[in-house]
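Example (one chain per record):
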Amino acid sequence: MSRQVFLYDPPDRFVAGTVGLPGRRTFFLQATSGPRVTSVALEKTQVAALAERMDELLDEVVRRTGGSAPVPAMAPTEVSDSAPLDSPVEEEFRVGTMALAWDGDEQRMIVEAQALVELDADSEEGLAAAEEELLQDEENGPPMLRVRLTGAQARAFVKRALDVVNAGRLPCPLCSLPLDPEGHVCPRQNGYRREA
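Predicted structure:
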């Protein structure tokens, strides 16, 4: 079966968002272009890691080009996006592997999110060989979302993604574990329930 690539070059909108209540949220990356909408599910830690690495890559591009690259230092307000995910949110796949690159010729950031794949291998060498084969297989690999962003779009994505990640449950002031609406059993209070 040939690989399905959801390509957005450029997208009208590329955002991280959630569905559900804090503590039970499902995280998504969503790309749109006209009537086309692609939503892929991923973990909160993946969203945070993607945003942090994108920010670092953008900073490195600015540093290496001496500021001549079209990458703003901060997300421009005219491209900021705080709207909810486009409905209906239909998961195309769950993300396993992500990759980032900067296309210096086109002055674009390339974000790739590949579907989670379970590999069957009996040994470490077999697992490494299966992973390498999977990465090299352009025609028959797992589904992939590929998005090409301007520097301003990438900065706006980073800001929103970090805001989404940090918008979850508040931390307990004593133990820093997340507080549920019903409270939580705080280890610093010797197991007594602490109210939110």
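Caption: The helical segments are 44-65, 124-136, 151-166.
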